[in-house]
Design brief:
alpha/beta, Rossmann fold, globular, single chain, 6-stranded parallel sheet, disordered N terminus, 379 residues, binds NADP nicotinamide-adenine-dinucleotide phosphate, 7-stranded mixed sheet
């Protein structure tokens, strides 16, 4: 075990002129951090510096208890993901410190690693499931030992680690019916699907929805949420994922490698675009008048929306404990099953990033960080 002096010196270094965490967060908000449209980050250089700093701050100010984490010191390919000893973060105020059992990998993690944030070091990861280790003095919702899952905000990051810190309002009790790996797969992807379908589109029973990318992280949740709402679901995926679409309950699966969706789909109430490429541009004509397109990979074109008499919007998903609570109910009543195509140990993070970067992942890829309580030799 490393001594405190040897712990990742770059992470412990104080950065001049940035003051306390609260002050920094205020300044960050003032700089209007915008995280939207396929995670295209419209951030000023100042915001980028602040976010990178915030992401490592819990580590920088921590007591010197070590933990293992994946640290990015500079942008690049999967090889820049380093497995290191760093100081454990601490929970302050309304923070909870989570002993992480599993962390999911999202496309945004790949963008971050590739340098959308120019200032490192940074511990990436926005999806975790684990157990509350410690609570800040203003925490009212959780106590030590609670099994929870959380959607760490873009500013927080830090999920690829043995311990992570988040606000209590970014976490909820973990669904009881699934293990930590399946719980970790849920927060960011399923919240995105929920915010698109329910909050932006107001999807209701009897409506018809077309979901582009029905077999992916967001898509597999979107299909199941839409079915749980009583909607008719049309979804696209490649040949290899047609069976998965059927298993998820899709009423009309479409193989995009053999069929152009616009040839077989007309007059839907709602399109969820969870794919990059030309699917958004080809979708305007398949929505009925007054219907809506929500795109999580780029803003719809206002001129096209007007031409077709439809509405449209982009979406920047954000953590919301209330959504996690709703999702946990749907999981525990069997309405949603998280689809996890691979579970890899934390040290295999590079492989997980390669898979996600392919843009053809089935469901989610999850990193296993620790054995659940009661199954580890230290318990
Ligand atoms: N705006 C936001 O807040 C937000 C939040 C989350 C995600 N996103 C973005 O949304 C996108 C989807 O996220 P994700 O986590 O679901 O990614 P993902 O898990 O990597 O999605 C991959 C899925 O997309 C499918 N796919 C690829 N090309 C397709 C096509 N032409 N037509 C239909 N399906 C296709 C793949 O199916 P096949 O293998 O069968 O091709 C695969 O199952 C990403 O670009 C991500 O960055 C944005």
């Amino acid at each position: 075990m490393l001594g405190s002096q040897e712990l990742a010196p770059t992470l412990q270094k104080k950065r001049p002129g940035l003051g306390r965490r609260g002050e920094t967060l205020r300044r960050c908000r003032d700089n209007e951090l915008a995280y939207a449209n396929d995670m295209r980050l419209s951030l000023s250089i100042n915001s980028l510096r602040l976010i990178a700093w915030i992401a490592v701050l819990p580590v920088a100010s921590a007591a010197q208890t070590p933990m293992k984490a994946i640290v990015i010191h500079s942008s690049g390919g999967p090889e820049v993901l380093k497995y290191e000893d760093v100081p454990r973060p601490q929970a302050k105020d309304d923070d909870i410190l989570i002993r992480v059992m599993a962390a999911a990998v999202n496309p945004v993690d790949v963008f971050i690693r590739e340098g959308r944030i120019t200032h490192f070091p940074l511990i990436p990861g926005m999806d975790v499931a684990g157990v509350v280790e410690e609570t800040g003095n203003k925490v009212t919702k959780f106590k030590r030992g609670d099994a929870i899952y959380a959607y760490l905000s873009f500013e927080e990051q830090g999920g690829y680690a043995e311990f992570a810190v988040t606000k209590q309002d970014h976490a909820a009790l973990k669904p009881k019916s699934v293990d930590f790996e399946h719980a970790a797969a849920v927060p960011l992807a399923a919240t995105t699907a929920w915010q698109a379908l329910i909050e932006k589109a107001g999807l209701s029973a009897g409506q018809t929805v077309l979901i582009h990318g029905g077999s992916g992280g967001v898509g597999t949740f979107a299909v199941q949420i839409a079915k749980a709402r009583g909607a008719k679901v049309i979804a696209t995926a490649s040949t290899a994922n047609q069976d998965l679409l059927k298993k998820l309950g899709v009423d009309q699966p479409i193989d995009y490698t053999t069929t152009k969706f616009e040839d077989v789909v007309k007059n839907v109430d709602f399109v969820l675009n969870a794919v990059r490429g030309d699917t958004l541009a080809r979708s305007y004509g398949v929505v009925k008048k007054g219907g809506i397109i929500v795109s999580i990979t780029g803003e719809p074109d206002p001129a096209e929306l007007e031409k077709h008499g439809i509405r449209g919007t982009g979406l920047g998903a954000h953590p919301d404990a209330k959504v996690l609570e709703e999702l946990a109910k749907l999981i525990d009543t069997g309405k949603i099953t998280p689809i996890v195509s691979a579970v890899m140990p934390l040290v295999d993070v590079a492989k997980a990033h390669q898979q996600i970067a392919s843009r053809h992942t089935r469901g989610k890829v999850v990193l296993k960080v620790a054995e659940p309580p009661g199954q580890s030799p230290r318990d």
